[in-house]
């Protein structure tokens, strides 16, 4: 049984690959850049471009289950080629698929749900712990974080927990046609996160709270598009309840508590020093 992981070089995909290997699966990883994929030796790395589905034919050969991203490129635009990908997957004999949530239903979800594939949605309506990497440079250079609305609470999730859930779903029966909403084990404000970060690296970190206009200026200087800026500012002004509501799903499926932010920081300490 070969399991194909798309998005395998991404924040989540690397953990899906790792957790599948730990569970003894034969893993094939899809990437547009095999030369720079930097994945474990036991992984078979294959070229594939999800916007050009015919390139997936060799990657799907012999595959019975697959982890499928639902977005294209760095800006997370919904992938439009869902119908073609699903048709090729069914033809190749794929039976089961996990779908990584992109914030809303798009062409991939629609095509998978209309197919004969056994699908499972993995929905983290919370931020990934890896978003903290965005702070690394200003912590290293100035020991400061500047951000809008520090009191906003987040049930952030360790990407390895998404990987652990994906591996269970792909390798066990009993998860077909279910949507799993996944969160971390604790709810943290930005000052809470900085206290943990500070303890991990042994250095004080100052938090400077920005106004909405100051946040817009910061994001414009970082080259972020206006629609994304407005989305972020609006989200921080009125965060949806699901972004800070704790759920036991990770533990229920994996049999172990969801990983903490302190654990993520210990694993990623060198990025901040
Ligand atoms: N960050 C958050 O807080 C958060 C929270 C909830 C949900 N999400 C969702 O999570 C997803 C992002 O996951 P992530 O952080 O793991 O992604 P990521 O680190 O940005 O990685 C993107 C991966 O997708 C692959 N990829 C992108 N376009 C492709 C294409 N056209 N063909 C083949 N491969 C393609 C890339 O592979 P190569 O470059 O190697 O080809 C890369 O492995 C988005 O849908 C986002 O909406 C994010």
UniProtKB/TrEMBL annotation:
Residues 2-97 form the NmrA-like domain. InterPro entries: Ergot_Alk_Oxidoreductase, NAD(P)-bd_dom_sf, NmrA-like. SUPFAM superfamilies: NAD(P)-binding Rossmann-fold domains (SSF51735). This is NAD-dependent epimerase/dehydratase family protein. It comes from the Bacteria. The lineage of its organism: Bacteria, Bacillati, Bacillota, Bacilli, Bacillales.
């Amino acid at each position: 049984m070969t399991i194909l992981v798309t998005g395998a070089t991404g924040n989540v995909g690397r953990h899906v690959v790792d957790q599948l290997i730990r569970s003894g699966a034969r893993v094939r990883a899809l990437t547009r850049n095999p030369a720079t994929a930097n994945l474990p030796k036991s992984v078979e790395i294959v070229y594939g471009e999800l916007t050009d589905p015919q390139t997936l034919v060799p990657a799907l050969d012999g595959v019975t289950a697959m982890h499928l991203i639902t977005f294209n490129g760095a800006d997370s635009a919904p992938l439009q080629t869902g119908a073609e990908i699903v048709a090729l997957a069914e033809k190749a004999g794929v039976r089961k698929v996990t779908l990584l949530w992109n914030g809303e239903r798009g062409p991939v979800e629609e095509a998978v749900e209309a197919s004969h594939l056994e699908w499972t949605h993995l929905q983290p309506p919370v931020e990934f712990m890896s978003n903290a990497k965005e702070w690394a440079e200003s912590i290293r250079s100035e020991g400061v974080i500047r951000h809008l609305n520090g009191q906003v609470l987040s049930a952030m999730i360790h990407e390895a927990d998404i990987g652990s859930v994906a591996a269970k779903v792909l390798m066990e029966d009993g998860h077909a046609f279910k949507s799993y909403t996944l969160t971390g084990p604790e709810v943290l404000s930005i000052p809470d996160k900085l206290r943990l970060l500070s303890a991990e690296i042994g250095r004080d970190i100052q938090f400077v709270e920005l106004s909405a206009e100051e946040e817009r200026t910061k994001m414009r200087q970082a080259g972020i598009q206006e629609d994304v800026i407005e989305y972020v500012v609006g989200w921080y002004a009125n965060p949806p309840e699901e972004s800070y509501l704790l759920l036991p799903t990770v533990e229920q499926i994996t049999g172990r508590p969801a990983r903490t932010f302190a654990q993520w920081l210990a694993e990623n300490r060198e990025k901040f020093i």
